[in-house]
Amino acid sequence: MSLANPNYQEKTSAVVCLVINAIQYMPLTVDRNLDPTTLVDQDSVNPVATKAQSITEWLAATQRPKKGMWGIGAHYCCIFGFLKAGAMSSSYLPATTESLALAAEAKDPSEGISILYRVLDDPSSSPDALRMKEQAITNLTKLLTDENRGEDLRSLLTQLRPFFSLIPKAKTAKIVRGIIDSVAKIPGTSDLQIALCKEMVLWTRAEKRTFLRQRVEARLAALLMESKEYSEALTLLSGLVKEVRRLDDKLLLVDIDLLESKLHFSLRNLPKAKAALTAARTAANAIYVPPAQQGAIDLQSGILHAEEKDYKTAYSYFFEAFESFNALDDPKAVFSLKYMLLCKIMVNQADDVGGIISSKAGLKFIGPDLDAMKAVADAHSKRSLKLFEIALRDYKAQLEEDPIVHRHLSSLYDTLLEQNLCRLIEPFSRVEIAHIAELIELPIDHVERKLSQMILDKKFAGTLDQGAGCLVIFDDPKTDAIYPATLETISNIGKVVDSLYVRSAKIMA
Known about the structure:
Blueprint: H1 9-24, H2 47-61, H3 66-89, H4 97-104, H5 109-120, H6 127-146, H7 150-159, H8 161-164, H9 169-184, H10 190-207, H11 210-226, H12 230-247, H13 250-266, H14 270-285, H15 291-307, H16 311-327, H17 332-346, H18 351-357, H19 360-363, H20 368-381, H21 385-394, H22 396-399, H23 403-425, E1 430-432, H24 433-440, H25 444-456, E2 462-465, E3 470-473, H26 482-508
Antiparallel strand pairs: 1-3, 2-3
Pfam family, one: RPN6_C_helix
Organism: Psophocarpus tetragonolobus (Winged bean)
Protein name: PCI domain-containing protein
């Protein structure tokens, strides 16, 4: 039978289709990097496409009818779909320990990342394969973090969404939070973290994953607060607090209340900050709180007490926070220690700063932060404004850029100014204000205003002679001991009279 005979056109189509079907199931060697839509005439690379293309050209040359042409053309398109699927399926690696070991042994991190991506492409959904994929995700996250590839981590979360439907929700939450934490380790990714959290909130809402959504929203609120977008963060927290309280999730409620306290403190709303912190402590007392979280509560308590000038209580809270963070090797330990030293300086115990720094716990955190506090303590001990200003200039990042320390710098400056003025006027009974201003290297009007304030606050006894431009210092008046003794005697007589009155009232009754 001649296939070119027009009398056998229908049979020709049937035979050609059988031939293509036979070719379709021949073993293929597909290059992973080859795009199936741009195939070339290479039998060794893609024999199916080559044979189908040859048959199509033959049909056109022999003027086959449209029905046969359409049949072959449609089959040709099916073959391309088959080839594309074959290329994709052949690009993955099986999710086994051998594949993970191959990625770990890769000399180049990029090669290891490529291998792990191929492991995740494995279509198998067996329990062992899923377990290996979870390990591959962990390893891939670590490699991408080490390479500072934040956008790739973001894309990874989107790519893994079909995989999340195959594993328990608790494992999904662990993976998502782990990837978000990894992005946070990459410097300069604040905007990326906010965008990533917003994407995950939308996805969790669509998938009705309430547990995960609440935690991602709490993380988003913290990021917004760090970015100084306080109104948006407060709006997000207000709804989240009500929702979590209805569910009575104590552990998450502690985090949210603590975050709300920090947010109100940033907005200088101390009453609401204290109320939120009290709510966090109340929730924490009902459950076991991890040491890191307890340390964060103590740290916030110390900050609020320091804001109220109760430095002794603040010191005790900072000490508790320092012990918690130090046991966990948390970087926040150095900030707790720094605020402890600040409290010592503010209560005029600057001499204790050197001892704390040279202790076993303090030596572990020697660095710019502790050096800055030591410089301030030295300036405070010597009552030297000049040394204080030098410390501010040399350690600007550690002092002025720290929001907690910066809040107390003005108070500390006033304290140092008062001590410096007291040191200068100690030898005098009468001194010109211009001379004091020259010695302290400050404007005359500023010094005069401060001296008048100190006299009113009874820091020392004296008066300002503005006509002569002089300060007159009086000797400290000695209290006569007879006056307190007289008052005590009168008080005792009053108690005796009251007692006699009560007894007489009972007798008369």
